[in-house]
Each structure stands twice: as C-alpha cells, then as structure tokens.
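Suppose a colleague, Dr. K., hands you the sequence of a protein chain of 170 amino acids and asks what its three-dimensional shape might be. Before reaching for any lab equipment, you can write down a predicted structure in token form. Begin with the sequence itself:
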Amino acid sequence: MVRGLAGDGAAYEAFLRTASAFLRAFLRGRLAGVPDEVEDLVQETLLAIHNQRHTYDAALPLTAWVHAIARYKMIDFLRRRSGREALHDPLDEEAEVFARSDTEAHEARRDLAVLLQRLPDRHRLPIVLVKLEGKSVAEAAAATGMSESAVKIGIHRGLKALAALIRDTP
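The predicted structure, expressed as tokens, is then:
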C-alpha cells in the first residue's frame, strides 16, 4: 500500500489482490446467510479503499484500516438489506385486520348516511356532492341550482352540524 501510494503501480495491484482475498474471507465469515452478496461487497469495499487511500497513515497498521472500511461497508449493506427485507414481509397475518377494516368502513358509511339524512338539503347535498363524490364547488352549484358561495357555506355549516350530531350520538 505504501509503495502504491508512492506511485508503484505493480505494488498497488499486488496490495489490491491481497486485500481482495482478505476481504472475501472476512465478509464470507460474517455474511454466511447471503453468500451471493459477498463479491459485490468486496468490490464496493475495494472501491472505498481506493477512494480513501489518501487517508491512510503509514504509521498505523494497514489491516486495521482496511478492516474498519470493510466493517463500515458491511454495516451499510446490512442496513440497506434490512430496509428491503421489510418490504417483503408477508401480509397473511394482516388479512384479518384488512377484512375488519372493510367491515368497519362499510358500517361508517352507513352511519354517515343516516346522519346526513338528518341534515337539510342545503347542507346535505353540497357535502355529498363535493366531499363524498369529489365534484368541484362549481359542479355542485350547477347540480343543485345553488350559488358557489351557498355551496361553500352549506358544506361548512353542514360539517359543523354533522360534528354536533356525532358528539350527541351515543
């Protein structure tokens, strides 16, 4: 490594070959569960060593410096992998939760429909058209014959009335 830093290309090539063997052994021992990833991680570590070679202090042991870079690269790999693995968790256990959620959503829609029926048309229709059906205020105004301002006021007052009905409903 030191001769390579001084410009000896053959010495640097020999260092990289020796470092590759060292890294393969080091990483294989720690990543036995994912042997296909070892070679990629060796290459990534060698690239980091090459890019950071200017930081090596020749007064310190070379193996400790290489080991530290390899360890950090392995930790980065494991963090990335754990994030990807979380994306592949099976959803079988959650099927009951999703089914219950659908039932609860249906019940909530039914309850909302009952509450909406208690509102006057000037409040109920704007809420249904704009908030539930996704129409614009202009479209709701055209459908109801109300002005756009009246639709906005109807939504506002209707939502306040619904909130009061929900608070008062056991």
